Amino acid sequence: MIRLVSEENVSQVLTELKEYSTEVDVDFSRKSIRSIGRCAIKVQSAAEISIKILVELVRTKVNYVVQEAVIVIKDIFRKYPDHYESVISELCECLDRLDNPEAKAAMIWIIGEYSLRIENASELLSMFLENFLDEIETVQLTLLTAVVKLFLREPQEGNQSLVQKVIKWTTQECDNPDLRERGYIYRRLLSSDINIAKTVVLSQKPLISDETELLDPYLLDNLLENLGKLSSVYYKADAYFSENQSDLKLKGFTTKEVQNSSFDETALETLQDFPLLVQSAKAGRFNFEDSSVKMGSCNPFHSSSSREFSDFFESNKSSSRIAKTTFLTPFEGKGLEIGGTFLRKEKKICFELSLMNHSLTPLKDLAIIFEPNSFGLHPVAPLDLPCSIEPTALLETSIILDVIGPVKLMEPVNDLQVIVTNNVGLFRFDCLIPAYVLFEESGNLEREEFLSRWKDSSYEEIIFTITVAHSEQEISEKLSENNIFIVAKRLIQGRHVWFTSIQLSSHTFLIEFGLLEQEMNIVIKTKTPQFFPIIKDSIVLILH
Predict the structure, then answer these.
(1) pLDDT tens track for 330-380
(2) pLDDT digits (tens, 9 = 90+) for 378-413
(3) At what angle are helices 532-543 and 472-481 packed, to 10 degrees?
(4) How high is the pLDDT of residue 239?
(5) Where are the alpha helices (H) located in 119-176, listed in sequence order?
(6) What phi and psi values does residue 371 have, to the nearest 5 degrees?
(7) What ranges in 173-323 are assigned the alpha helix state H?
(8) Cβ atoms of residues 182 and 144 within 8 Å
(9) What is the pLDDT confidence band of residue 494, given thresholds at 50, 70 and 90?
């Protein structure tokens, strides 16, 4: 429901959730209250009405309702700091109803963050400190930070004794290493320079956001058009499923195939969220997109040569800027070794994979699954794989990816998790997607639009410097080759300056390159700062 919330329908959704919040089913009620908070975080105009609903729920004095409301209000404060502080007095009247650790931690955070607006903040924190040593780690850590914030904002004698007592507990009487280390950090900060401590502890925190905003708008439109079908359940485009389906049957997947398959049922249960790829493994189909080996629909794969797996990585280096990496060693894969790299060619994202069987027996029932990721990368078609890979055989294939799959914010943001299954077991590996393969051909901005966005105060920026050994012409060519579009080029006081733009999925990046001798100053601007690290890494890679 939260994925469908918008400015137009948020009022109706909140009304519905308000009714759900008072249900007798505790878990259902808690989830409904959390959803009210997510609506407020996702749609700014809904924040005020969400706060009013949450205050009404707090006034019910029902323990689990009050506790969940406190947790949600804390998240709203993190999204909209210095707003809605008037509700804090309502929350402070319900302290005796907070027996849930997460709710306690949320209330303590609110008191510490808004201690200047709470007259008796020191007394309230003292109440929580009475059982400090018996609390769980989350509450203890939050209490420690809240007391330090209180002292830094109001360095009175009473607050000083409070912070000294807490730091003594954390450094001398607590066995938890995280708590003890944080206590030492605060003690050293406070004893060295109070201004530095204020800069560190009271610094402005990044605003939180709702991950549903990362859902690709085109995919969302497709899901809305097919509401009630499997596409809206699995967050996949409707084209992946057959037009006429019943009892969860997918295209090319029949009940008979399931019954006759030797596919490991344990793996099937683990992968139940990926039915399309499971059916590819069961069906035993095989097709190469970029391979010199041509096979039938289900013939065992034999290597055309006995060359080593590492030999393949040494070949064709010019086709990729990043050397091929081993994702899964033979030891981790119980005889299966997997390596590969990412390319962008012919306007497509290609995942070049190599699989080698080091075991003494054939590997059968092969399936490859791409888990949800930050960009929604997913194969454009069902994967057709061989029914077996013979011993010492090397399988090379190219998988075409596109941003059509489910989205989930990863850490780091360019992490791609892949699952490979066969008759031996299920194996998972992570690989980092180089951002430059995601730079789209549609990223060229007109000068007027570029200038307008460059002046937009909502864009955040980073600035860094690198050393390059390329000429002006070589730099221009490297940028153009990687879909970094040159909007304008200038010579300013002996510095060569390029103003460029990049389009990555639905995110736009504005970049200024300034070259003086071999020193390159780079400025990146965007509304999605979480992508700064991967954009910076790709630029460094391209120019080196």
Answers:
(1) 888 888 999 999 998 888 999 999 999 998 889 988 889 999 998 889 999
(2) 999 888 788 889 998 999 889 999 988 888 888 889
(3) 130
(4) 64
(5) 121-129, 137-153, 157-168
(6) -80, 160
(7) 177-192, 194-201, 217-225, 230-234, 255-260, 265-270, 275-283, 309-314
(8) yes
(9) confident
Q: How many Cα atoms within 13 Å fall on the side-chain side of residue 117?
A: 15
b/e sequence 111-120, b meaning 16+ C-beta within 10 Å: bbbbbeebee
Query: Is the distance from CB of 95 to CB of 107 less than 8 angstroms?
Result: yes
What's the alpha-carbon Rg for the chain, to the nearest Å?
28
User: What's the CA gap between 7 and 181, in Å, rounded?
Assistant: 45
Category of 433 on φ-ψ map: left (φ > 0), alpha (ψ -120 to 50) or beta: beta
- Cβ 180 vs Cβ 166: under 8 Å: no
The DSSP string of 500-543 is EEEEETTEEEEEEEEEETTEEEEEEEES-GGGHHHHHHHHHHHH
203-222: burial string, b at 16+ Cβ within 10 Å, e else: eeeeeeebeeebbbeebbeb
Tell me the C-alpha to C-alpha distance, in Å, between residue 257 and each of 272, 284, 301.
16, 10, 21
Can you list the domains of the chain with their CATH numbers?
2-201 (1.25.10), 217-433 (2.60.40.1150), 438-543 (3.30.310.10)
Residue position matching structure tokens 């995919």: 219
Q: What pLDDT score does 218 carry?
A: 59
Instruction: Please state, in angstroms and rounded to a whole number, the distance separating the CA atoms of residues 366 and 281.
Output: 6
Question: No. of H helices and E strands in the chain?
Answer: 20, 15
Pairing of strands 336-345, 348-357: antiparallel
Within 10 A of 294 (CB to CB), how many other CB atoms are there? 8
Mean pLDDT across the chain, nearest whole number? 81
User: How buried is residue 493: exposed, middle or buried, by Cβ count under 10 Å (0-12/13-18/19+)?
Assistant: exposed
What does the pLDDT read at residue 417?
93
Computed from CA positions of residues 172, 177, 182, 188, in that sequence, does the dihedral angle turn out positive or negative?
A: positive
Contact 157, 150 (CB under 8 A): no
Is the pLDDT confidence value at 322 over 70? Answer: no
Count of beta carbons in the 10 Å neighbourhood of residue 258: 15
- Rounded to an integer, the average pLDDT of 247-261 is 37
| pLDDT score for 310 | 42
Instruction: Name the amino acid, one letter, at 114.
Output: Y
DSSP 184: H
Q: Which helix (H) or strand (E) holds 397?
A: strand 394-403
What pLDDT, on a 0 to 100 scale, did the predictor assign at position 466? 92
> Could you give the 3-state DSSP secondary structure of residue 45?
helix
Pairwise CA distance, residues 501 & 443, whole Å: 6
The span from the CA of 536 to the CA of 364, in Å, is: 41
Q: Look-up: residue for tokens 């941003």?
A: 403
In single-letter form, the type of residue at position 82 comes to D
Residues in the chain: 544
User: Rounded to whole angstroms, how far apart are CA atoms 86 and 55?
Assistant: 10
110 burial via Cβ count (<10 Å: 0-12, 13-18, 19+): buried
* Model confidence, pTM: 0.45
**In the chain, how long is the greatest CA-to-CA distance?**
82
